[in-house]
């Protein structure tokens, strides 16, 4: 579940009427652009008549006009925490950015996971700090819901019986590049055959690539039954319930993983380049709640030795959520 659907369900339970607008599929194609145009017209009509407007990403039609008096715009954002620079924090780095840009400045409130990240969101969105409120992330409620967890695990193993009795390595990296339509992942770096050659037979790899990415890991026929692409099948947060290890890089999934207390390895083979091009709000090496590995040999050694620096996970969770995991 995403923040918007969680918020919609809660508001409707309180008797409020909600209209949900989603970015049309196929953006970029002729039909996709036509659908997007119709959606934008519809949005402007709803924008002019709604009391509350919730968004959870950069929604550019919102920035083209100001809301009517009495309408409040609330940014829920799609990621917990903050460690990669974004928005106005990147002035001087991204050539298209201007200090005078109206983007993001219409927000009345920005909801974040903890007091720790308030200054980063205020800077990134170009809003005053009093507009940034640490209430937790709505979609994180289910991560502490034992009944939800049990239902998902039952469903997962019913749909994937081959994973029963196996240890699941969840591979969930983020993209490199500019964003939707202009990004990539150097998939050759994730050497599936070499990984399986060096770790025990009870491991399987579940792949959850960023939705912007088309690249997928591949392996030889020898290991095809131990590699499964779940990119289009499940929510990444749900997959944390069945994962014995998360391998990621610079993805914000680490915040949700800390709630579930999943061990993590950070496959940061391009850390210097990524730090130069994207940059962080803090020192990556001292920030991440797990061990950093730079190549496949370091990764497999850590897996075989269960060397994940997992003692970093609980303090990380406390720092970035406190007692307000979700609301």
Which keywords apply here?
single chain, 327 residues, alpha/beta, six-stranded parallel sheet, four-stranded parallel sheet, 12 strands, 31% helix, globular
In short:
With 327 residues, this protein is an alpha/beta fold. Helices cover 31% and strands 14% of the residues.
Summarize the biggest pleated sheet: 6 strands, parallel
Q: How widely separated are the two ends?
A: 14 Å
Tell me, rounded to a whole number, the average pLDDT.
91
Order of helices and strands: HHEHEEHEHEEEHEEHEHEHHEHH
How many distinct helices?
12
Helix-strand blueprint:
Blueprint: H1 3-13, H2 30-47, E1 52-55, H3 60-63, E2 72-75, E3 109-112, H4 118-125, E4 132-134, H5 146-159, E5 167-171, E6 176-179, E7 182-184, H6 192-198, E8 203-207, E9 227-229, H7 236-239, E10 245-248, H8 253-260, E11 264-267, H9 271-277, H10 284-287, E12 291-293, H11 296-304, H12 313-321
Parallel strand pairs: 1-2, 2-3, 3-4, 5-8, 5-10, 8-9, 10-11, 11-12
Antiparallel strand pairs: 6-7
